[in-house]
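Researcher: Let's walk through a ligand-bound prediction step by step. First, I give you the protein sequence. Second, the SMILES string for magnesium ion. Third, you return the three-dimensional complex as structure tokens. Ready?
Model: Ready.
Researcher: Here are steps one and two:
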Amino acid sequence: MSVILDVQNAEKYYGNKGNLTAALNDLSFSVSEGEFVGIMGASGSGKTTLLNCVSTIDSLSAGRVLIGGKNLSELKGRELDRFRSEVLGFIFQDFNLLDTMTARENIALALSVRGEKAGSAEKKVEEIAGILGITDVLDKFPVEMSGGQKQRVACARAVVTDPKLVLADEPTGALDSKSSKALMESLCKLNTERNSTILMVTHDTFSASYASRILFIRDGKLFTEIVREEGEIRKDFFKRIVDVTSLLGGELDEII
Ligand SMILES: Nc1ncnc2c1ncn2[C@@H]1O[C@H](COP(=O)(O)OP(=O)(O)O)[C@@H](O)[C@H]1O
Ligand SMILES: [Mg+2]
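Model: Step three, the predicted complex:
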């Protein structure tokens, strides 16, 4: 399996001399094509910083991030914009849909900005909507949809371009438990049926239990990782996640 994301000795400092915070402290890991990786850790452990540095929103103080073999620090200006739109897909906690467009238009927009013809864009939108179970809301506006439906539309928009890497930041953060389940099942389907590679930050053990591997971050370092074994049922993986989060210790019982 080829490596899609390679984070090498990542360091990120905030502040100035005498008052430095190491948000990432020599963090290394890689993600291979087709993996669904969850990132967990207490509040302040560096999850958002990591995601921002992988998504090109922010840059490292030291170390490297390679996506598809490309070193992100070598990308500038328009090349960086193109890389972001062609290689990455984003799913945010607050959906980020355009209110004046229907679901269909929101999803197709990701394709039309890349110059895709209307006919083939339409076909791709229908196909992805079928996988995510949102065919019946395609002609609705965001205001007419539930939170769960909006987030599945946002997922469709993130993956319709077939990005190399899908980045999700607390995707179930604004959803109730039923919608969270539907969303995680959708992400799983994208992972297994479209071979989408997903990196998801979450503080929610239930959401994390859908991933195939979980990285636990502590003080900007990799604390440990667990892998869902072949044939391991999600409930058992869930229990192992709970075990590690409690192992992370007293000061981390506010895992968020
Ligand atoms: N823009 C910033 N300026 C200063 N410190 C920051 C900034 N962003 C994050 N930090 C600090 O870096 C550490 C990691 O933060 P963050 O990546 O947001 O953690 P998490 O997402 O796991 O809660 C924390 O100590 C936080 O206070
Ligand atoms: Mg955060």
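Researcher: And what stands out?
Model: The beta strands are 3-16, 19-32, 36-41, 62-67, 70-71, 88-91, 165-169, 198-201, 213-218, 221-227. Helices lie at 47-54, 77-87, 103-112, 118-132, 147-159, 177-193, 205-208, 234-247.
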